[in-house]
Amino acid sequence: MERPSLEFNLPDTHEEGKLYVVDSLNNLNKLNVCPDESQRSLDEEENTGDTGERMAGSNTRNQHLFFITFILTLIISLALVSFVIFLILQTRNEVDQISSRLLSEKKNIEELKKINNIILKHLNQSGIKE
Q: DSSP label at 127?
């Protein structure tokens, strides 16, 4: 068997062309050196490596997405908790104001009862009956 020469005279091409030619030579070399079964295993390894890179990129993207979602959730939770605390404080102030008004009204009612009792005693003593 005669092995084909791997040395070629490459014409001057641009960088992309050179890469294409080198890649083609590598593929040709694989075909000449490797039998069919081992070529399939090499192809499978290459495909698995590519999938692994895509999965790694996908995992990184998923981690970034999870991190951003987590941070946004924390910020929204903090805003909601702050709003609830603000509402609790406002409600407490309103309840305190209402309580103080009720206490002052209770004192006024007590004073009015005392005055009513005094008036009734005075009317009973003076003998004026209805």
A: T
Q: Report the C-alpha gap between 42 and 40 in whole angstroms.
A: 5
pTM: 0.42
Distance separating alpha carbons of residues 68 and 79, to the nearest angstrom: 17
Helix axes 15-33, 36-126, angle to 10 degrees: 120
DSSP 26-40: HHHHHHHHS-HHHHH
What is the three-class DSSP state of 130?
Answer: coil
For 105, half-sphere exposure in the C-beta direction (CA atoms, 13 angstrom radius) is 6
User: 78-103, pLDDT tens digit by residue?
Assistant: 999 999 999 999 999 999 999 999 99
- AA identity, residue 8: F
- As given in the structure block, the two tokens for residue 71 are 């941070």
